[in-house]
Amino acid sequence: MSDNIYLCSYEATSSWKSRSLAKELVTGAVASVFLGFGSLFLLLASGVYV
User: Where is the chain membrane-spanning (predicted)?
Assistant: First the structure.
């Protein structure tokens, strides 16, 4: 959750020239990993075995 807040605040407050593609890709990758694990454990907790 904090990665999404960080990414949104980073995108909203940084100017176009000061943005770093590497920082955005790393933050997006970390957020997608956490989203994937969260979805997996939510499905397992609700009884859907994947």
Answer: 25-49
